[in-house]
Amino acid sequence: MTHQTAGIHHITAFVDRVQETVDYYASALGLRLVKQTINFDAPEVYHLYFGNEWGSPGTIITFFPSPGSQKGTIGGGQVGYTTYVVPEGTLDWWEARLKKFNIPITRMERFGEQYLRFPDLSGLQLEIVARAEGPASTWAFGGVPADKAIKGFGGAVLYSTDPVKTAMTLEQVLGLERVEMDGDYMRFKGAGDLGNLIDLDLTKHKWGQGGSGIVHHIAWRAKDDEDQLKYRELAATSGLQPTPVVDRQYFNAVYFREQGGILFEIATDPPGFAHDESVETMGAKLMLPAWYEQYRDQIIAGLEPFEVRVLEEDL
């Protein structure tokens, strides 16, 4: 049997201002801010994590906000669209909600499913699809009740400079199953029930450019450290030059760039986001790794303050 990932662990992107990002994802989309910390490689920058109530793998989108940063260009070597999944029968509700916030929407169909496509305030491309699959969210905030709430990732649309080679990595390293074609899209499926349907755009895209509104990397799930090392070995034998294992506090990470240019990460499910604070208090305060704790006051002084709040449209 092929060694197969469950699907997406998390997706990480660059955005502009921190408060508008929190307003968009926590207030308008109704996700929970499950962790606020810093970029461990650049402590002057926040690293914010949004997901379901528990911060489960398959629900987490993370951001590095950098006010005034240059806008990126979406293209090859990137995640083209980040796909969210909502309960069946709620797509019209979500369309009305997005319109209430003056978010521009395009409806499209792919693999027989209806999608709402829309940008965030930094230009990151998002889409929503309704499916029965996947556990329901129990999180409610602002104008988003739990029975309408985003469950997590439905998957992603990948833009590659070499789709044939990207497809090989999806199958041979991650073990995703090639399930069907629809025009210029090839669909792959993982073993899980969230973040498990990956659509590869078979168009050869010109290289995109990094910056605000761009996905930095997509992370795939490993059950544990042992499972992660199996994926690392598969990547290495495929000539993809994976990094050593990196401790990210809430998961261990291995990175490699597949031959179509997309930065992939293999991230472990454990230990999760509640190991350094309780599930009830996750996201309420800035959490720092031990080696930065002595610089807490200095780090906080350099970060732009923000709050999770209910917006005027929901009052």
Automatic annotation (TrEMBL):
InterPro entries attached to this UniProt entry: Extradiol_RC_dioxygenase, Glyas_Bleomycin-R_OHBP_Dase, Glyas_Fos-R_dOase_dom, VOC_core
Highest taxon listed in the record's lineage: Bacteria
Keywords: Dioxygenase, Oxidoreductase
Pfam families registered for this protein in UniProt: Glyoxalase
Molecular function via GO: dioxygenase activity
Transmembrane segments: none
CDD domains: PcpA_C_like
Record-annotated VOC domain positions: 7-131, 152-269
Protein name listed in UniProt: Ring-cleaving dioxygenase
Organism for this UniProt entry: Candidatus Cohnella colombiensis
